[in-house]
Amino acid sequence: MKICPTCRKAYADDNLNFCLEDGTILTQAASEPPPTVMMSHPRPTDPAASFPTQNQGIQSSYGNAPNYSMQHPPKKSKAWLWIVGIVGILLLLCGGGFVGLVLIGMNADRNQGGNNSTFPTNNRSTPTPSPGASPFSSTTTPPSGDVTPIDVSMFVDDTGAYGTTEMSGDELMMAAKQKGYYFVLVATENYSTLDSTARVTVRNVDNVDSRLGYGLVFHSDKRPLTDGYAFLIDTKKKRYRVVRHSTRAETAIVSWRVSTAIKDGSQENVLEVRDKGSDLEFYINDQMVTTSKDAFTGSTGVPGLYSGDGTKVGFKKMEIIK
């Protein structure tokens, strides 16, 4: 007879070598029968509660298998990650489109109510500078040719109703009498900017903001603001723009743009417009900043000066080069 040393189960078949209950190698049984208490061995559902304390050591093989299912916790669904990702992408796309529309709206040209030296009109629009530097950056050589200087003292008008003009040394100090207005003076028919280069040196005397800008008028009708253009800068924000004048109206053909060619503060800046037939080239301190098609159809075009928004501006070295 053989006996299992673990569960103490006895087997009469001497050819059997392993316990049919737990697989333990059987041993040859002693002459006396196994203890009766082990014959009533309970099922191993809760061995610790069923066996006497002194027999706890023989329960180790039963305790190797737990009573619960050994399953991994169910994997949480990651569908919400896909949903969040898709929503995020849609928000970015929608948000980017919205920003793009806002930028397009901000950079759109604004038509502005105009005025002239005898009929001012309050300009209520607020130009917005376009982001980025000027598209042109190369320094060019000033044009050569016959230079006709223009004495800026010719623009002094002590009786001006809408603007102030006075000489200070070699500079003409010019300003509109009221913020929100622009004040324009033009030369006589003796000076023409057609097929020529017009140039003037400009200075923001008090380094103040100017919503409208200040600068050089060219291809103008002999009546101010009836026809022509103005090339304007704002040194406080280092930006420029180009406007087209028709009767009592001003339209931006180049909206405000930032340019590194502009010297800020109250430093002097040289503005120059070159008439190249059907094209116009615009320069600041000998650097081309932009170009435009010339829509002027008049037989003559004279130069002039423009000061907006009550800014006190100094003008000097005005000349035409043919």
Could you please describe the fold and organization of this structure?
- This protein has 322 residues and is mainly beta.
- The protein has two domains: 2-63, no CATH class; 111-321, Exo-inulinase, domain 1 (Jelly Rolls, Sandwich), CATH 2.60.120.
- The chain contains four helices and 18 strands.
- The chain has helices at residues 36-39, 47-50, 60-63, 79-107; strands at residues 2-3, 10-11, 27-28, 111-113, 147-150, 163-168, 171-176, 182-186, 197-204, 214-220, 228-234, 239-246, 249-258, 268-276, 279-284, 287-293, 302-308, 313-321.
- The strands form three sheets. Strands 5, 6, 7, 9, 14, 15, 16 and 18 form an eight-stranded antiparallel beta sheet that branches. A seven-stranded antiparallel beta sheet has the order 4-13-12-11-10-17-8, with no helix packed on it.
- The longest helix is centred in the N-terminal third of the chain and has 29 residues, at 79-107.
- The chain is rod-shaped and about 140 Å long.
- It starts with a strand and ends with a strand.
- Mean pLDDT is 74; it is low at 33-76 and 96-134.
